[in-house]
Amino acid sequence: MSLIGSPVRGVGRLLAVGAAVAMTVLLGACGADTPAPGDASSAGAEGPWSFTDDRGTKIDLPKRPTRIVAQSHPAAALYDFGIKPVGVFGPQKTADGKPSPQIGNLDLTGVESVGTAFGEFQLEKLIALKPDLIVTVAYGPMIWYIPDEVRAKVEKIAPIAVIQLMGVAVPDAVKRFGDLSAALGADPDSPAIRQARTDFETAANALKAAVAAKPGLSVAVVSGTKENFFVADPEFHGDVKYLQQLGLQIVKPGKPEAGFESLSWEEAGRYKADLVLEDARPEGGLDSTQMATYPAWQNSPAVKANQVVDWQTETPFTYQRFTKVLTDTAAAVTKADAAVVP
């Protein structure tokens, strides 16, 4: 995923405007630990355990952690490798009660929520879970979903392992989730993981072939709110960066700030492209129909040619979940006209 979970549809915008975060403390209960699809070892290893996270922080524990509490994205990633957390924080369900895309394949049965909104962290629920390890991600220096004002309290309950996502292409992020999962007892070479990795690589090669067959095709990755139009910087967003590595000619904004260039709607036609990936998150911003009501965007080449598809920015970085993103992107590229920009 790229920029998942921000209250303003993007960590770049969150960082840029310095959005405030709040912390709540509520009562809670314990979750349960059950096997997950990736064939994790059911028995904890004896002896000392250590893991160095992407901050360079070495975590040392007397034995392998078995009670994991994780933010939605790493919870989904760990689950696909075979580690089911006892608790999760961050988005879990959409407004209509369906599983959030951010939670991926994770079965929430027996998993305790310790907060859902950005900045919300229910410390008493966390304490009740007696976690051995807390896992989250980072976008640059921002530790995702654990507010600065509560982090010291959280770290007294259990150490925090952080996986960096800013500017990290999908395969590299998946590898790091795999490294952590293996350290937690999962088998990164299980038959299920081998098959998922093969499917992912097959989809990546299919996208490469589709791009090669459409020389000159330009692609813009965008988002919008009522106030502003945003053009994504591929060097910031790990999913977009990976699409670029696979050959897509991604339009790079001239003045990005923390992941996006922010423009007025009158300037929405500044960066022209044959194909547009448009932020598909249902909450906090405009959908395709709403964006198309703004004249400058309505008259852009890709919109006029009906070459606008979803940017699935909430997809967790796992082989199982991101394969569909690659497949859908390949289909869009294959269908697109590479000459709609004059």
Automatic annotation (TrEMBL):
Domain of life (superkingdom): Bacteria
Keyword presence, Signal: yes
Subcellular location: Cell envelope
Predominant subcellular localization, coarse grouping: other
Assigned GO CC terms: outer membrane-bounded periplasmic space
Regions that span the bilayer: none
Family: Belongs to the bacterial solute-binding protein 8 family.
Protein name: Iron complex transport system substrate-binding protein
Keywords, comma-separated and alphabetical: Signal, Transport
Secretion signal span: 1-31
Cited InterPro entries: ABC_transptr_periplasmic_BD, Bact_iron-sidero_bind
KW Transport (keyword) present: yes
Pfam families reported in the protein's UniProt record: Peripla_BP_2
Residues annotated as domain Fe/B12 periplasmic-binding: 66-342
GO biological process, one term: iron coordination entity transport
PROSITE patterns noted in UniProt: FE_B12_PBP
Organism: Micromonospora inyonensis
UniProt-annotated stretches for the region Disordered: 36-56
